[in-house]
Amino acid sequence: MAALTFGILTVSDTCHRDPKKDTSGPSLKEQVLKSYSSVRIIQQIVPDEIEDIKSVLLNWSDEQKYNVILTTGGTGFSNRDVTPEATRQVIEKEAPGLSYAMISNSLAITKMAMLSRAVCGVRGKTMIINLPGSKKGATECFGFIKSCIPHAIALLTDQKDLVVLLHQSIQTKGGGDGIEVTPSKVKIDNVASRSRKSPYPLKEVSEATKIVLTQCTPTRSETEVVAFDQSVNRILAEDVYALAPVPPFRASIKDGYAVIAADGAGPRTIKEVAAAGDVPIEDVLKSGEAIRISTGAPLPPGADAVVQVEDTSIVTASPDGSVEVVIKIEIAPKLGQDIREIGSDVAVNSLVLNKYEQIKAAHVGVLAMLGKTEVMVFKRPSVGVISTGNEIGDPKEKLAPGKIRDANKFTLMNLLKKYSYDSMDCGIARDNPDSVKAVLERAFVYNDVIITSGGISMGEFDILKQVLVEDFGAEIHFARVNMKPGKPTTFATLTYHGKEKKFFGLPGNPVSCGVTCLLYIIPALRYMEQCANYKFPTIQIKNLPLVNNDSRPEYHRVQISFDPTIGEFKATSTGNQISSRLNSLVGANGLAIVKKGDPPTTLNVLLFDDLV
Ligand SMILES: Nc1nc2c(c(=O)[nH]1)N[C@H]1C(S)=C(S)[C@@H](COP(=O)(O)OP(=O)(O)OC[C@H]3O[C@@H](n4cnc5c(N)ncnc54)[C@H](O)[C@@H]3O)O[C@H]1N2
Ligand code: MOO
Ligand SMILES: [Mg+2]
C-alpha cells in the first residue's frame, strides 16, 4: 500500500490571523506521523468561513485526492462555528459511526463532548473527519478512530487484498493501526550455545541471482487499468491499436497557402483563412484560389499542395494593408507538397504500442494522441522497507550516545524511486525478536516485497532469519553469497495469510545494502511485473588497475565515462571500498567485477546509472 495521504485543516479566525497560535494542527500532524508507518501530510489554516473551508475540502479531495482530511476547529455552538455545515455540503456520504465513536469515548472524559456537532463522511475516495478545535480534544478524538482509518481507506480505494488481510488480522480491542501482533517464538537467552558457524552454504552470485529470479518470476499475469498519465514506466499488458487515424484530417505541415498544384507558379486570389483549430472549410477550392493556412490547420477540399509563406510574395493588399488579396506563388508546387494525409502518422487500426513494452514519456504522449485515456498494465508488487538495529535513529532527531542515523532506509527507498518503484517506509525494528516480529508483521500486511537492512550476520542480535523461520514459517533460499560487499545477503519466501511474500535481507553496512539492492532487488522487481531478462548493461573496460585481495569477487564501485581521446569507455575507482563508506557509492555509475589476484587486462563493469 502506498503512503497514506493526510490533509490537516485548522479552521480558526484567530489562527488564520496568527498561525503561531495553531497548536492543534501541529499536534495532530505529530500524532498522524506516529500512528502509521508511511504517511504524507499537508497542512493549512482557514478562517471560520464556509466558502474557505469548502474550497480546501474540495481541492484536497477532488484535485489532490488525499486519503483523509482532518479538520480541527469550528464544530462548537458559537456563531462563527461552521465547519460541520461546510463539511456537510461537501461530503457525498455521511459516516456517523466515526462521530459517534468520538463522542461516546469523549463522554467518558468530559460531559462537554455532548456539545460536539462534528460531521464525518466521504467524498470520492477521501474521508473527511471533523475534530474539535482544542489540542487535547482533537488528538484524543483522533486517537479513538485512528485504528479504523487504514481499513476505511483500503475499502474506499478498492484494495480488496488489503481489506481481507486487515479483516484477518484486526484486533478486536483496537489500538495502533489495528494489526494484531503477538510475541515472537524466538528466544535469544542462550548465547553460549549458539552456532558459531553459519549453517547456510555460500552461494555464488550467479546461483543467488538465479534463485531470486526463479522465485520472482510471476506465475500469474495480474493486470490493472491505470490512467494514461499515470502509466509512465509501467509494463504494457495489452497491445495498443489506433482506433482512429492521426492526423484525423488532412493537415498543413507549413504556415503558407493551400493551393491546387496543377495551377503551377503565379498569382492566387486569397479566398479564406484556415488557422489551427478552425472548423474545416467546406467550400471546394477552385483553380486560381488559395487559402491562407497555418501549420496543423485542416486543408480545404480541392487543395492538394501547401506552399510555405517564404516561397510567395504579395501582389495586392487591401487599401489599409491589413488583408492579402492576391499573392504570387514563386515556385511551382508539387502535388501533395507539405500535406499530412489522414492517418499518415498513425494509420487507423495499426498496432502502435506492444504488450510487454515499458511505457516511456513518448508512449504516454502517443496514448494521449490516440485518446486512449486508460491503459492495461501489469500489476507491480508493493514494496516495504525496514531498517533494523538498536543503534539506528531518525535522521531528524538528536543523536544519542552510541546511536547512528538511519542511512539505509533512505538509500534504499530512493534507489527504488530512481528505478520508478514507490515503497513504504515500514519503520525500524529493534534488535529483539518481538520488535522484529511486530515490524515484519505490519510490513507483510501491506507489502508483497519486504526489504530489510542489518541483523543478518553472525551477531547474537542478528535475529531476522530466526524470526522469519520460527514466527512466519519462511523458507530461506540463501543467506550467504560469495561477494564483496554483501556476503550475508539473505533471500526468503513465505506465505502470509495466503499471500506470497518475498523477503530480501540486505546487509547493514550501507554500501553492501545499496549494492545488493541494485544486484538482486531491481531485477527481481522488474521480473515480477513481467519484464523478463532485465539486466544492467555490461561494458568491458580495458586496463582498469583494480586489485582484490579478498577471496570473494569484489563489486568495486567505479565511475564510467567515455574517453574521446581513445574512443573507448574508461572507469575510475570511487576510492576506499570499505562497506561502511557510503561515499564509495556516491558518484559511482558502475560496478567493476574484480576477482582475487592481479588485475586482468579487461574487466566487466555493470552500468547501473547514467554515464557521466
Ligand atoms: N562474525 C562475523 N561477523 C560479521 C560477518 C561475518 O561473516 N562473521 N560479516 C560481516 C559483513 S561482511 C557484514 S556486511 C556485516 C553485516 O551485518 P548485518 O547485516 O548483520 O548488519 P548489522 O550488524 O546490523 O550492521 C552492520 C553495520 O551497518 C550499520 N548499519 C545497520 N543499519 C544501518 C542503517 N540503517 N543505516 C546506517 N548504518 C547501518 C551498523 O551500525 C553496523 O555498523 O556483518 C559483518 N560481521
Ligand atoms: O560483505 Mo560485507 O557486505 O563486506 O561488508
Ligand atoms: Mg550484524
UniProtKB/TrEMBL annotation:
Gene3D superfamilies: MoaB/Mog-like domain (3.40.980.10), MoeA, C-terminal, domain IV (2.40.340.10), Molybdopterin biosynthesis moea protein, domain 2 (3.90.105.10), Molybdopterin biosynthesis moea protein, domain 3 (2.170.190.11). It comes from the Eukaryota. Pfam families: MoCF_biosynth, MoeA_C, MoeA_N. CDD domains: MoeA, MogA_MoaB. It catalyses: adenylyl-molybdopterin + molybdate = Mo-molybdopterin + AMP + H(+); molybdopterin + ATP + H(+) = adenylyl-molybdopterin + diphosphate. The keyword Metal-binding applies. Pathway: Cofactor biosynthesis; molybdopterin biosynthesis. GO terms for biological process: establishment of synaptic specificity at neuromuscular junction; gamma-aminobutyric acid receptor clustering; glycine receptor clustering; Mo-molybdopterin cofactor biosynthetic process; postsynaptic neurotransmitter receptor diffusion trapping. Its cofactor is Mg(2+). Residues 7-152, 384-527 form the MoaB/Mog domain. InterPro entries: MoaB/Mog-like_dom_sf, MoaB/Mog_dom, MoCF_biosynth_CS, MoeA-like, MoeA_C_domain_IV, MoeA_C_domain_IV_sf, MoeA_linker/N, MoeA_linker/N_sf. GO terms for molecular function: ATP binding; metal ion binding; molybdopterin adenylyltransferase activity; molybdopterin molybdotransferase activity. In the N-terminal section; belongs to the MoaB/Mog family. In the C-terminal section; belongs to the MoeA family. Catalyzes two steps in the biosynthesis of the molybdenum cofactor. In the first step, molybdopterin is adenylated. Subsequently, molybdate is inserted into adenylated molybdopterin and AMP is released. This is MoaB/Mog domain-containing protein. It comes from Diabrotica balteata (Banded cucumber beetle).
